[in-house]
Design brief:
InterPro entries: Beta-ketoacyl_synthase (IPR000794), Ketoacyl_synth_AS (IPR018201), Ketoacyl_synth_C (IPR014031), Ketoacyl_synth_N (IPR014030), PKS_Beta-ketoAc_synthase_dom (IPR020841), Thiolase-like (IPR016039). Residues 11-424 form the Ketosynthase family 3 (KS3) domain. Belongs to the thiolase-like superfamily. Beta-ketoacyl-ACP synthases family. One of its GO terms (cellular component) is cytosol. Helix 2 (72-91) runs parallel beside helix 6 (154-164) and helix 7 (179-192) packs across helix 13 (359-373). The chain is an alpha/beta fold. The chain has helices at residues 29-37, 72-91, 112-121, 131-141, 145-150, 154-164, 179-192, 210-218, 257-262, 291-304, 322-336, 349-352, 359-373, and strands spanning 14-23, 26-27, 44-45, 58-59, 101-104, 171-173, 198-205, 248-256, 269-278, 313-315, 345-346, 375-376, 399-400, 405-412, 416-423. The protein has 2 domains: 14-109 and 151-423, Thiolase/Chalcone synthase (Peroxisomal Thiolase, Chain A, domain 1, 3-Layer(aba) Sandwich); 112-150, no CATH class. The chain contains 13 helices and 15 strands.
Length: 427
Protein backbone atom coordinates (compact mmCIF):
# COMPACT_ATOMS: atom_id res chain seq x y z
CA UNK A 1 0.00 0.00 0.00
CA UNK A 2 1.50 3.34 -1.07
CA UNK A 3 0.65 6.45 0.92
CA UNK A 4 1.40 9.43 -1.29
CA UNK A 5 -1.72 11.23 -0.08
CA UNK A 6 -1.60 11.84 3.65
CA UNK A 7 -3.54 14.03 6.06
CA UNK A 8 -2.20 16.48 8.65
CA UNK A 9 -1.35 13.58 10.99
CA UNK A 10 0.44 11.54 8.33
CA UNK A 11 -2.44 9.09 7.83
CA UNK A 12 -3.83 7.91 4.50
CA UNK A 13 -6.56 10.26 3.23
CA UNK A 14 -9.93 8.51 2.95
CA UNK A 15 -12.05 9.22 -0.11
CA UNK A 16 -15.69 8.46 -0.91
CA UNK A 17 -15.92 6.86 -4.35
CA UNK A 18 -19.48 5.53 -4.31
CA UNK A 19 -22.81 6.28 -2.63
CA UNK A 20 -26.28 4.78 -2.54
CA UNK A 21 -29.36 5.80 -0.58
CA UNK A 22 -32.98 4.87 0.07
CA UNK A 23 -35.41 6.87 2.21
CA UNK A 24 -39.13 7.46 2.32
CA UNK A 25 -38.54 10.01 -0.46
CA UNK A 26 -37.61 7.24 -2.89
CA UNK A 27 -34.90 4.90 -4.12
CA UNK A 28 -31.58 6.13 -5.43
CA UNK A 29 -29.44 9.21 -4.97
CA UNK A 30 -30.90 11.18 -7.86
CA UNK A 31 -34.55 10.86 -6.80
CA UNK A 32 -33.76 11.46 -3.13
CA UNK A 33 -31.69 14.57 -3.78
CA UNK A 34 -34.30 16.05 -6.10
CA UNK A 35 -37.07 15.50 -3.54
CA UNK A 36 -34.96 16.63 -0.58
CA UNK A 37 -33.82 19.88 -2.17
CA UNK A 38 -37.35 20.42 -3.43
CA UNK A 39 -38.64 20.43 0.14
CA UNK A 40 -40.77 17.31 -0.32
CA UNK A 41 -41.81 15.16 2.64
CA UNK A 42 -41.77 11.37 2.77
CA UNK A 43 -43.80 11.21 5.99
CA UNK A 44 -47.19 9.60 5.56
CA UNK A 45 -49.99 7.84 7.35
CA UNK A 46 -49.03 4.29 8.37
CA UNK A 47 -50.77 1.57 6.34
CA UNK A 48 -48.48 -1.40 7.05
CA UNK A 49 -50.21 -2.27 10.32
CA UNK A 50 -53.25 -1.07 12.29
CA UNK A 51 -52.70 2.12 14.30
CA UNK A 52 -56.04 2.44 16.06
CA UNK A 53 -55.47 3.49 19.65
CA UNK A 54 -51.92 4.67 19.02
CA UNK A 55 -51.01 8.29 19.68
CA UNK A 56 -48.64 8.30 16.70
CA UNK A 57 -50.01 7.07 13.38
CA UNK A 58 -47.44 8.45 10.92
CA UNK A 59 -43.99 7.41 9.73
CA UNK A 60 -41.42 7.80 6.99
CA UNK A 61 -41.78 4.20 5.84
CA UNK A 62 -40.17 2.52 2.86
CA UNK A 63 -43.01 0.45 1.45
CA UNK A 64 -42.07 0.57 -2.22
CA UNK A 65 -39.46 -2.22 -2.09
CA UNK A 66 -40.78 -5.77 -2.40
CA UNK A 67 -39.60 -8.14 0.31
CA UNK A 68 -40.47 -11.85 0.36
CA UNK A 69 -41.29 -11.89 4.06
CA UNK A 70 -42.68 -8.93 5.95
CA UNK A 71 -40.24 -8.64 8.83
CA UNK A 72 -37.62 -6.14 9.91
CA UNK A 73 -34.59 -8.23 8.92
CA UNK A 74 -35.84 -8.76 5.37
CA UNK A 75 -36.74 -5.09 4.95
CA UNK A 76 -33.39 -3.97 6.36
CA UNK A 77 -31.47 -6.42 4.17
CA UNK A 78 -33.39 -5.48 1.01
CA UNK A 79 -32.64 -1.78 1.48
CA UNK A 80 -28.97 -2.43 2.29
CA UNK A 81 -28.62 -4.62 -0.80
CA UNK A 82 -30.12 -1.99 -3.08
CA UNK A 83 -28.05 0.91 -1.74
CA UNK A 84 -24.89 -1.19 -1.98
CA UNK A 85 -25.63 -2.06 -5.60
CA UNK A 86 -26.02 1.65 -6.33
CA UNK A 87 -22.84 2.62 -4.47
CA UNK A 88 -20.70 -0.04 -6.14
CA UNK A 89 -22.01 0.92 -9.58
CA UNK A 90 -21.18 4.56 -8.90
CA UNK A 91 -17.71 3.53 -7.71
CA UNK A 92 -17.15 1.50 -10.87
CA UNK A 93 -16.53 -1.69 -8.88
CA UNK A 94 -17.79 -5.11 -9.90
CA UNK A 95 -17.10 -8.63 -8.76
CA UNK A 96 -15.88 -9.31 -5.24
CA UNK A 97 -15.44 -6.16 -3.18
CA UNK A 98 -12.20 -7.40 -1.61
CA UNK A 99 -12.42 -5.26 1.52
CA UNK A 100 -14.11 -5.34 4.94
CA UNK A 101 -17.79 -4.68 5.60
CA UNK A 102 -19.01 -2.48 8.44
CA UNK A 103 -22.77 -2.62 8.87
CA UNK A 104 -25.02 -0.54 11.13
CA UNK A 105 -28.24 -2.48 11.70
CA UNK A 106 -31.16 -2.19 14.12
CA UNK A 107 -31.46 -4.53 17.09
CA UNK A 108 -34.16 -6.89 15.87
CA UNK A 109 -36.77 -8.65 18.00
CA UNK A 110 -39.55 -11.02 17.02
CA UNK A 111 -42.77 -9.41 15.83
CA UNK A 112 -45.71 -10.00 18.14
CA UNK A 113 -47.45 -12.32 15.66
CA UNK A 114 -44.39 -14.58 15.72
CA UNK A 115 -44.24 -14.47 19.51
CA UNK A 116 -47.86 -15.53 19.80
CA UNK A 117 -47.27 -18.36 17.34
CA UNK A 118 -44.38 -19.61 19.44
CA UNK A 119 -46.40 -19.24 22.62
CA UNK A 120 -49.05 -21.51 21.13
CA UNK A 121 -46.40 -24.22 20.69
CA UNK A 122 -45.33 -24.17 24.32
CA UNK A 123 -47.16 -25.83 27.22
CA UNK A 124 -49.19 -23.53 29.48
CA UNK A 125 -47.50 -22.32 32.63
CA UNK A 126 -48.93 -22.15 36.09
CA UNK A 127 -46.51 -19.41 37.04
CA UNK A 128 -47.77 -15.81 36.67
CA UNK A 129 -45.69 -13.58 34.43
CA UNK A 130 -43.90 -16.56 32.89
CA UNK A 131 -44.61 -15.70 29.26
CA UNK A 132 -40.99 -14.93 28.38
CA UNK A 133 -39.74 -18.24 29.79
CA UNK A 134 -42.40 -20.02 27.75
CA UNK A 135 -41.20 -18.14 24.69
CA UNK A 136 -37.61 -19.27 25.26
CA UNK A 137 -38.74 -22.83 25.93
CA UNK A 138 -40.62 -22.92 22.65
CA UNK A 139 -37.53 -21.67 20.82
CA UNK A 140 -35.45 -24.48 22.34
CA UNK A 141 -37.98 -27.24 21.78
CA UNK A 142 -38.74 -26.54 18.15
CA UNK A 143 -35.79 -25.28 16.15
CA UNK A 144 -36.90 -22.97 13.36
CA UNK A 145 -33.99 -21.70 11.23
CA UNK A 146 -36.21 -19.34 9.25
CA UNK A 147 -37.59 -17.73 12.38
CA UNK A 148 -34.12 -17.55 13.92
CA UNK A 149 -32.71 -15.67 10.92
CA UNK A 150 -35.73 -13.36 10.89
CA UNK A 151 -34.85 -12.06 14.35
CA UNK A 152 -31.05 -12.18 14.10
CA UNK A 153 -29.75 -8.83 12.93
CA UNK A 154 -26.27 -10.29 12.37
CA UNK A 155 -27.76 -12.28 9.50
CA UNK A 156 -27.96 -9.08 7.43
CA UNK A 157 -24.19 -8.58 7.30
CA UNK A 158 -23.58 -12.27 6.56
CA UNK A 159 -25.88 -12.08 3.55
CA UNK A 160 -24.31 -8.83 2.34
CA UNK A 161 -20.83 -10.34 2.71
CA UNK A 162 -21.85 -13.35 0.64
CA UNK A 163 -23.54 -11.21 -2.01
CA UNK A 164 -20.75 -8.67 -2.50
CA UNK A 165 -17.61 -10.66 -1.67
CA UNK A 166 -16.30 -8.64 1.25
CA UNK A 167 -13.28 -9.92 3.18
CA UNK A 168 -12.91 -11.00 6.77
CA UNK A 169 -15.65 -11.31 9.35
CA UNK A 170 -18.32 -8.67 8.66
CA UNK A 171 -18.81 -6.28 11.57
CA UNK A 172 -22.37 -5.53 12.69
CA UNK A 173 -22.88 -2.68 15.13
CA UNK A 174 -25.77 -0.90 16.76
CA UNK A 175 -25.06 2.35 18.59
CA UNK A 176 -28.57 3.78 18.44
CA UNK A 177 -28.96 6.92 16.30
CA UNK A 178 -25.18 7.26 15.89
CA UNK A 179 -24.84 3.83 14.25
CA UNK A 180 -24.51 4.98 10.64
CA UNK A 181 -21.78 7.48 11.50
CA UNK A 182 -20.02 4.88 13.66
CA UNK A 183 -19.95 2.39 10.77
CA UNK A 184 -18.32 5.05 8.60
CA UNK A 185 -15.80 5.81 11.34
CA UNK A 186 -14.80 2.14 11.54
CA UNK A 187 -14.21 2.10 7.79
CA UNK A 188 -12.13 5.27 7.99
CA UNK A 189 -10.01 3.85 10.81
CA UNK A 190 -9.40 0.58 8.97
CA UNK A 191 -8.00 2.49 5.99
CA UNK A 192 -6.01 4.94 8.10
CA UNK A 193 -4.40 2.07 9.98
CA UNK A 194 -3.27 0.48 6.73
CA UNK A 195 -5.36 -2.65 7.21
CA UNK A 196 -7.13 -2.22 3.88
CA UNK A 197 -7.26 0.04 0.81
CA UNK A 198 -11.06 0.07 0.77
CA UNK A 199 -14.06 -0.52 3.02
CA UNK A 200 -17.77 -0.96 2.49
CA UNK A 201 -19.84 0.95 5.05
CA UNK A 202 -23.56 0.29 5.15
CA UNK A 203 -26.35 1.45 7.44
CA UNK A 204 -29.93 0.23 7.27
CA UNK A 205 -33.11 0.32 9.31
CA UNK A 206 -36.42 -1.25 8.33
CA UNK A 207 -37.69 -1.79 11.85
CA UNK A 208 -40.81 0.37 11.98
CA UNK A 209 -43.52 -1.69 13.67
CA UNK A 210 -46.37 -1.22 16.11
CA UNK A 211 -44.08 -2.27 18.94
CA UNK A 212 -41.43 0.27 17.93
CA UNK A 213 -44.05 3.02 17.92
CA UNK A 214 -45.31 1.99 21.34
CA UNK A 215 -41.83 1.84 22.86
CA UNK A 216 -40.81 5.28 21.62
CA UNK A 217 -44.22 6.68 22.55
CA UNK A 218 -43.73 5.47 26.12
CA UNK A 219 -40.54 7.53 26.16
CA UNK A 220 -42.54 10.58 24.97
CA UNK A 221 -40.14 10.79 22.03
CA UNK A 222 -42.53 10.71 19.06
CA UNK A 223 -44.54 13.46 17.46
CA UNK A 224 -48.30 13.09 17.89
CA UNK A 225 -49.14 15.75 15.30
CA UNK A 226 -50.62 13.23 12.88
CA UNK A 227 -52.60 15.53 10.62
CA UNK A 228 -51.23 16.44 8.19
CA UNK A 229 -48.33 13.94 8.39
CA UNK A 230 -45.92 15.99 6.30
CA UNK A 231 -46.06 18.86 8.83
CA UNK A 232 -45.15 16.77 11.90
CA UNK A 233 -41.35 16.99 11.80
CA UNK A 234 -40.39 20.59 12.50
CA UNK A 235 -36.86 20.80 13.92
CA UNK A 236 -35.79 23.89 15.86
CA UNK A 237 -39.32 25.36 15.93
CA UNK A 238 -41.21 26.45 19.01
CA UNK A 239 -44.01 23.90 18.46
CA UNK A 240 -41.84 20.82 17.81
CA UNK A 241 -43.12 17.88 19.85
CA UNK A 242 -41.06 14.82 18.92
CA UNK A 243 -39.41 12.93 16.08
CA UNK A 244 -41.10 10.98 13.32
CA UNK A 245 -39.83 7.40 13.12
CA UNK A 246 -38.66 6.38 9.66
CA UNK A 247 -36.84 3.78 7.58
CA UNK A 248 -33.97 4.00 5.15
CA UNK A 249 -30.49 2.88 4.20
CA UNK A 250 -27.25 4.24 2.79
CA UNK A 251 -23.97 2.78 1.57
CA UNK A 252 -20.64 4.54 1.12
CA UNK A 253 -17.63 3.04 -0.61
CA UNK A 254 -14.50 4.29 1.14
CA UNK A 255 -11.02 4.04 -0.36
CA UNK A 256 -7.62 5.44 0.39
CA UNK A 257 -7.09 8.39 -1.93
CA UNK A 258 -3.97 6.61 -3.23
CA UNK A 259 -6.02 3.58 -4.29
CA UNK A 260 -8.80 5.68 -5.78
CA UNK A 261 -6.38 7.76 -7.88
CA UNK A 262 -4.45 4.66 -8.94
CA UNK A 263 -7.54 3.09 -10.48
CA UNK A 264 -8.86 6.34 -11.92
CA UNK A 265 -11.94 6.47 -9.71
CA UNK A 266 -13.98 9.62 -9.30
CA UNK A 267 -13.70 11.07 -5.80
CA UNK A 268 -16.99 12.49 -4.52
CA UNK A 269 -15.71 13.72 -1.18
CA UNK A 270 -13.19 13.20 1.61
CA UNK A 271 -13.89 11.75 5.05
CA UNK A 272 -11.71 14.26 6.82
CA UNK A 273 -12.49 13.74 10.53
CA UNK A 274 -14.44 11.58 12.95
CA UNK A 275 -15.32 12.18 16.58
CA UNK A 276 -17.20 10.14 19.16
CA UNK A 277 -17.88 10.48 22.86
CA UNK A 278 -20.12 8.66 25.33
CA UNK A 279 -22.76 10.43 27.40
CA UNK A 280 -23.31 8.86 30.82
CA UNK A 281 -26.11 11.21 31.88
CA UNK A 282 -29.15 8.95 31.27
CA UNK A 283 -30.23 5.79 29.46
CA UNK A 284 -32.12 7.81 26.83
CA UNK A 285 -31.72 11.53 27.48
CA UNK A 286 -28.69 13.57 26.49
CA UNK A 287 -26.86 15.64 29.08
CA UNK A 288 -28.69 19.00 29.20
CA UNK A 289 -25.43 20.95 29.29
CA UNK A 290 -24.37 19.35 26.01
CA UNK A 291 -20.95 18.47 27.37
CA UNK A 292 -20.50 15.12 25.56
CA UNK A 293 -21.91 16.53 22.29
CA UNK A 294 -19.53 19.49 22.54
CA UNK A 295 -16.61 17.11 23.06
CA UNK A 296 -17.75 15.00 20.09
CA UNK A 297 -17.86 17.95 17.67
CA UNK A 298 -14.50 19.23 18.89
CA UNK A 299 -12.97 15.78 18.50
CA UNK A 300 -14.19 15.57 14.89
CA UNK A 301 -12.80 19.02 14.07
CA UNK A 302 -9.45 18.17 15.68
CA UNK A 303 -9.29 14.86 13.82
CA UNK A 304 -9.95 16.72 10.59
CA UNK A 305 -7.40 19.45 11.34
CA UNK A 306 -10.07 22.12 10.77
CA UNK A 307 -10.91 24.98 13.10
CA UNK A 308 -14.36 26.35 13.89
CA UNK A 309 -14.21 28.87 11.06
CA UNK A 310 -13.55 26.22 8.45
CA UNK A 311 -17.00 24.62 8.46
CA UNK A 312 -19.34 26.00 5.81
CA UNK A 313 -22.49 23.98 6.57
CA UNK A 314 -23.81 21.77 9.37
CA UNK A 315 -26.09 18.83 8.69
CA UNK A 316 -27.77 18.80 12.10
CA UNK A 317 -29.02 15.80 14.02
CA UNK A 318 -32.16 17.95 14.28
CA UNK A 319 -34.67 15.37 15.46
CA UNK A 320 -37.55 17.78 16.24
CA UNK A 321 -37.68 16.69 19.89
CA UNK A 322 -37.86 19.58 22.38
CA UNK A 323 -34.86 18.55 24.45
CA UNK A 324 -32.50 17.23 21.77
CA UNK A 325 -32.82 20.24 19.47
CA UNK A 326 -32.09 22.58 22.38
CA UNK A 327 -29.08 20.49 23.45
CA UNK A 328 -27.68 20.43 19.92
CA UNK A 329 -28.05 24.19 19.60
CA UNK A 330 -26.25 24.76 22.90
CA UNK A 331 -23.50 22.38 21.77
CA UNK A 332 -22.99 24.10 18.43
CA UNK A 333 -23.05 27.50 20.14
CA UNK A 334 -20.34 26.41 22.56
CA UNK A 335 -18.10 25.10 19.78
CA UNK A 336 -18.62 27.65 17.01
CA UNK A 337 -19.37 30.75 19.08
CA UNK A 338 -19.43 33.89 16.96
CA UNK A 339 -19.09 31.81 13.78
CA UNK A 340 -22.44 29.99 14.26
CA UNK A 341 -24.80 32.75 13.00
CA UNK A 342 -23.00 32.68 9.63
CA UNK A 343 -23.09 28.86 9.27
CA UNK A 344 -26.21 27.38 7.61
CA UNK A 345 -27.62 24.52 9.72
CA UNK A 346 -30.41 22.33 8.33
CA UNK A 347 -32.12 19.07 9.24
CA UNK A 348 -32.88 16.38 6.68
CA UNK A 349 -35.19 14.79 9.26
CA UNK A 350 -37.77 17.50 8.61
CA UNK A 351 -38.44 15.69 5.32
CA UNK A 352 -37.38 12.05 5.74
CA UNK A 353 -38.03 11.58 9.46
CA UNK A 354 -35.56 9.90 11.78
CA UNK A 355 -34.11 6.80 10.14
CA UNK A 356 -32.56 5.72 13.46
CA UNK A 357 -29.73 3.25 12.81
CA UNK A 358 -29.36 4.47 9.23
CA UNK A 359 -29.49 8.22 9.96
CA UNK A 360 -25.75 8.92 10.25
CA UNK A 361 -24.95 7.34 6.89
CA UNK A 362 -27.99 8.74 5.08
CA UNK A 363 -27.09 12.23 6.25
CA UNK A 364 -23.42 11.73 5.35
CA UNK A 365 -24.49 10.99 1.77
CA UNK A 366 -26.63 14.12 1.70
CA UNK A 367 -23.77 16.14 3.19
CA UNK A 368 -21.48 15.10 0.35
CA UNK A 369 -24.21 15.91 -2.17
CA UNK A 370 -24.45 19.37 -0.64
CA UNK A 371 -20.80 20.01 -1.50
CA UNK A 372 -21.02 18.38 -4.94
CA UNK A 373 -24.04 20.39 -6.06
CA UNK A 374 -23.61 23.67 -4.20
CA UNK A 375 -27.15 23.31 -2.91
CA UNK A 376 -28.16 23.47 0.76
CA UNK A 377 -31.24 21.36 1.53
CA UNK A 378 -33.85 23.22 3.56
CA UNK A 379 -35.40 22.61 6.95
CA UNK A 380 -39.09 22.48 6.09
CA UNK A 381 -42.03 23.26 8.38
CA UNK A 382 -40.09 26.16 9.85
CA UNK A 383 -43.05 28.46 10.46
CA UNK A 384 -42.79 29.22 14.18
CA UNK A 385 -39.14 29.79 15.16
CA UNK A 386 -38.03 29.00 18.68
CA UNK A 387 -36.69 32.29 20.08
CA UNK A 388 -34.29 30.29 22.28
CA UNK A 389 -32.68 28.67 19.21
CA UNK A 390 -31.21 31.27 16.91
CA UNK A 391 -29.96 29.48 13.79
CA UNK A 392 -29.90 29.91 10.04
CA UNK A 393 -31.83 26.71 9.36
CA UNK A 394 -32.18 27.31 5.60
CA UNK A 395 -35.90 27.74 6.25
CA UNK A 396 -38.36 25.96 3.98
CA UNK A 397 -36.56 26.56 0.65
CA UNK A 398 -33.22 25.26 -0.64
CA UNK A 399 -30.33 27.68 -1.11
CA UNK A 400 -27.55 27.82 -3.68
CA UNK A 401 -24.28 28.13 -1.80
CA UNK A 402 -20.97 26.45 -2.43
CA UNK A 403 -19.37 24.92 0.66
CA UNK A 404 -16.13 22.97 0.96
CA UNK A 405 -16.43 21.51 4.47
CA UNK A 406 -19.45 20.01 6.22
CA UNK A 407 -20.06 18.80 9.76
CA UNK A 408 -22.70 16.07 10.23
CA UNK A 409 -23.94 15.32 13.75
CA UNK A 410 -25.48 12.10 15.13
CA UNK A 411 -26.49 12.09 18.79
CA UNK A 412 -28.14 8.86 19.91
CA UNK A 413 -30.19 7.37 22.71
CA UNK A 414 -28.06 5.78 25.39
CA UNK A 415 -25.36 8.43 25.11
CA UNK A 416 -23.88 7.49 21.74
CA UNK A 417 -22.53 10.60 20.01
CA UNK A 418 -20.71 10.77 16.68
CA UNK A 419 -19.77 13.59 14.34
CA UNK A 420 -18.22 13.48 10.88
CA UNK A 421 -16.33 16.18 9.00
CA UNK A 422 -16.39 15.86 5.21
CA UNK A 423 -14.61 18.02 2.67
CA UNK A 424 -14.75 18.46 -1.07
CA UNK A 425 -10.97 18.39 -1.50
CA UNK A 426 -8.14 16.55 0.27
CA UNK A 427 -6.33 19.69 1.47
Amino acid sequence: MSNAYKDHLGRPIVAVTGMGVITSLGQGLEDNWSALTGGASGIRKITRFPTEGLNTRISGMVDFIEVPVANSVERSYAMARETTLEALAQAGLSGDFNGPLFLAAPPIEPEWSARFELADRSPPSTQPGDAYNRFLAAMREKADPGFHEAVLFGAISERLADRFGTRGLPVTLSTACASGATAIQLGVEAIRQGRTDRALTVATDGSVSAEALIRFALLSALSTQNDPPEKASKPFTKDRDGFVIAEGAATLVLESLDAAVARGARVYGILKGCGEKADLFHRTRSSPDGGPAIATIRAALADAGIDEGGIGYINAHGTSTPENDKMEYLSMSAVFGEHLPSIPVSSNKSMIGHTLTAAGAVEAVFSIQTMLTGTLPPTINYQNPDPAIVLDVVPNVKRSQQVSAVLSNSFGFGGQNASLVMTAEPA
